Amino acid sequence: MTITTAPPPRVAYFxxxxxxxxxxxxxxxxxxxFARRRNLPFLCVRAGDREPHLQEDGNVWTLELPRGFxxxxxxxxxxxxxxxxxxxxxIEDVLVRFQPDIVHMTGPSEVGxxxxxxxxxxHLPLAASWHTNVHEYAARxxxxxxxxxxxxxxxxxxxxxxxxxxxxxxxxxxxxxxxxAPNPALCSLxxxxxxxxxxxxxxxxxxGLFHPSLRxxxxxxxxxxxxxxxxxxxxxxxxxxxxxxxxLEQMGLHDFRFMIVGHGAEESWLRERLPRAEFTGxxxxxxxxxxxxxxxxxxxxxxxxxFGNVVLEALASGVPAIVTPDGGPPTIVREGETGxxxxxxxxxxxxxxxxxxxxxxxxxxxxxxxYALTMSWDAVFDGxxxxxxxxxxxxxxxAVES
Length: 402
Description:
Elements (H helix, E strand, L loop, with lengths): L10 E4 L8 H16 L3 E7 L4 E5 L2 E7 L5 E4 L2 E3 L7 H11 L3 E4 L4 H12 L4 E4 L4 H8 L1 H4 L4 H23 L4 E4 L2 H11 L3 E3 L23 E6 L9 H12 L5 E6 L5 H7 L4 E4 L3 H9 L3 E4 L8 H8 L4 E3 L15 E3 L5 H9 L2 H15 L4 H17 L9
Helix pairs in contact: 4-6, 8-12, 11-13
């Protein structure tokens, strides 16, 4: 008797970010690397900064397409090109040659919109992964306007902005046959609002790249380093870092400093209020790993992150983390063991508690590293491919009713 196994699905992946510094790009680069390690048939269609370029490297193909002069900035290193549809003939030609079984997009960008349209035109099942809480970002980005309103009206208006943004996002994601999200709460929310099944797609960490042994500070340097890695923007709630410094000093604690890795619109504001902080800018590779290892406690006050790659990277580096109860980070941190999960008003007290208890701090460092060792990228993407297999075997669902 001969036992045959079905070939792996041929995946056309359309990330809205790949070369930038953010969670979507980070996950997308690891996804492509996973396909290369496993020699899986995988086409990655993404935006780049050069002429259209198709590379066929065995089973893994990449198609990079430039954004044009009409593109505009969404973030310091992320743009949107409303004329990106000019690449449709080339993308369609490559898709016909590659013959994917499934199309996977990561969000409502120009790249994602083309993925959705081409999947429909070619009668291919569409998967979509949610990486960014666009509804919460919309509300945070409106705060500059809302602060001019009376607080009750500002609160109501802010919630309305968030609700409308979520409704639009849910409508867009409902065109997919199946969804992926990085934490259980988001999966439940998406299932309720889109009527589509949602699978967990958390994120992993390279525990060899992020390692406590990369610490370069000398034993004589006993200053307690509070670290932050990420975009310096309003939705990351980075203003709380200045509050933490002020409140720690009011408690009589002065032997600490901040190390802040990243860039963004709030950088100059933070520099004014954190004169002792080290601002490294964006770091990658070994310099980033060393920066994490040189921290003593990771302080991440964001309420909008769907997962929190940087939190997991800190834990892998043996650095316990303090996070808010919102979004994905509290699903990574184990309260009192690998860090703390506290509201904004308790951050300073939580930092002080760790700073004053070296034995507890050391135990947290060891627990953080041990937990990170259980979080591999291969396990994450094995789960995604298992979901693909289920999608391809199941009948197509009916369209969501208006």
